[in-house]
Write a structure and sequence with these properties.
Number of strands: 7
Shape: globular
Distance between the termini: 77 Å
Bound molecules: adenosine-5'-triphosphate, magnesium ion
CATH superfamily of the largest domain: P-loop containing nucleotide triphosphate hydrolases
CATH architecture of the largest domain: 3-Layer(aba) Sandwich
Radius of gyration: 25 Å
CATH class of the largest domain: Alpha Beta
Number of domains: 3
Largest sheet: 5 strands, parallel
């Protein structure tokens, strides 16, 4: 027996478990080794990798396995903060520093004191701000906006970028000094297409987790199904794989997922409607992945509610809704279902509400609009309660109401 190989396999298993990062490919193994080495230190780390490849997962593993794990882990998406306010967000401001600054305000660095700050999409920060970040990296010091006294914090910096920062430096949009300071320890998260041997394990994990979470049956994938998945290029990396698997596990009926199903969903992803009228929620790449997850989650909650509702109706606790009745007890969620919603819902095997033909004609946006409208009606247009029920920021809800032009019917 080759002891060294046995040892390595075991070691990878241990590290995978320890960090919650799945994969046995060479790229992942060396990534896990680096995490193991640098996590307990205070050294700043740059995480490079394509979108959806797992950068945030790596950052959080670094924090969780450091002496700072009991202190804050503050995630800052630098790309999402407008340039005009980024410094005040990062470093805080003094009262009166600018119009509207009515009191002193803590920035993210202060909030992260003692812990770790994760500067996601660091390549998106304006050049002027980059100088200030360099100063924090080198001296642990910064000036809140409008203040003349610097502040010192004890924060570990982990940064990530899905852009090639070296190219950004050449193009003059990223400071060379900051890049060199950051890149000393770089963890490169491999793209999924460069670690195809990990696809089966990842697919199984996502499918099983999803089945358990949603209490549905999942019997596994055929070997052919894995082969097809390994051939795909997964431009959205692990996030794409995860969403793909979850949609499939939820929308299929609980049998073994075979090649034909995978082809159907993959084709649908690239050629939405005509090629695949069976795909219930069109996988529109423009729709944010998180929203897609939300939609599926909501559909699931509705499915459960409907099952409960049917139970209550069967027991006579709730009167059966009359044709065209506006009985108060009639549950608006039921309206989401097309006409044949009365078919038996077998909670073990058949997500009847998600029968492909039922939702086939709807785009993800239409399903979302429908869900928001129904939820608003359910909560009598109380936006706070609706946002809570949809697990959506109130601000996002307002935006969507406007975007979808949802109005309260009187
Ligand atoms: N190796 C892995 N094992 C298990 N789950 C993973 C792995 N890598 C990523 N994931 C999961 O995939 C999803 C995407 O990962 P993550 O958010 O960390 O990617 P990212 O690189 O930060 O993406 P983006 O560039 O879009 O911000 C998450 O749900 C994460 O938990
Ligand atoms: Mg991320």
């Amino acid at each position: 027996m080759d002891n060294s190989i046995y040892f390595e396999t075991n070691r990878t298993d241990t590290l995978q478990q320890k960090f919650g990062i799945l994969g046995k490919s060479t790229g992942v193994q060396s990534m896990l080794e680096t995490i193991e080495q640098v996590a307990p230190t205070d050294i700043s780390v740059l995480i490079a990798g394509e979108s959806g490849s797992g950068k945030e997962l790596v950052a959080s593993a670094l924090h969780k396995h450091s002496r700072r794990s009991h202190k804050p882990f503050v995630i800052v998406n630098c790309g999402a903060i407008p340039a005009g306010i980024i410094e005040s967000e990062l470093f805080g401001h003094k009262k009166g520093a600018f119009t509207g600054a009515q009191s002193d305000r803590k920035g993210y660095f202060q909030s992260a004191d003692g812990g770790t700050i994760f500067l996601d999409e660091i390549g998106e920060t304006p050049l002027e701000t980059q100088v200030k970040l360099l100063r924090v990296l080198e001296q642990g010091e910064f000036l809140p906006v409008g203040s003349s006294t610097s502040m010192k914090v004890d924060v570990r910096i982990v940064a990530a970028s899905n852009r090639n920062l070296e190219k950004e430096v050449e193009a003059g949009s990223f400071r060379k000094d900051l890049f060199y300071r950051l890149k000393a320890i770089t963890i490169t998260v491999p793209s999924l297409r460069d670690r195809r041997e990990d696809i089966a394990a990842l697919a199984n994990k996502f499918a099983n987790d999803c089945a358990v979470r949603n209490q549905i049956l999942f019997k596994g994938f055929s070997e052919g199904a894995f082969q097809v998945m390994r051939q795909h290029s997964w431009p959205g990396n692990i996030r794409e794989l995860k969403n793909f698997i979850e949609s499939m596990v939820i929308l299929e009926k609980g049998g073994v997922i075979k090649t034909d199903v995978i082809y159907r969903y993959l084709n649908a992803e690239s050629t939405p409607t005509e090629m695949n009228p069976l795909l219930p929620v069109k996988l529109d790449r423009n729709v944010d992945q998180a929203e897609r997850e939300l939609i599926l989650q909501q559909l699931f909650m509705l499915r459960r509610e409907i099952a409960e509702m049917k139970e209550l109706i069967a027991q006579g606790v709730v009167p059966r809704p009359q044709e065209g009745s506006s009985s108060e007890e009639y549950h608006p969620a039921l309206e989401v279902l097309p006409d044949d919603h009365n078919q038996e819902i077998d909670s073990e095997s058949s997500p009847a509400i998600l029968n492909p033909t039922l939702l086939g004609a709807l785009t993800a946006a239409q399903v979302e609009k429908e869900l928001i409208t129904r939820s608003l009606e359910r909560f009598n247009f109380n936006k706070r309660k609706t946002a809570q029920a949809l697990e959506m920021a109130e601000r996002t809800l307002y935006r969507k109401i406007k975007e979808y032009d949802i109005v309260k019917e009187s």
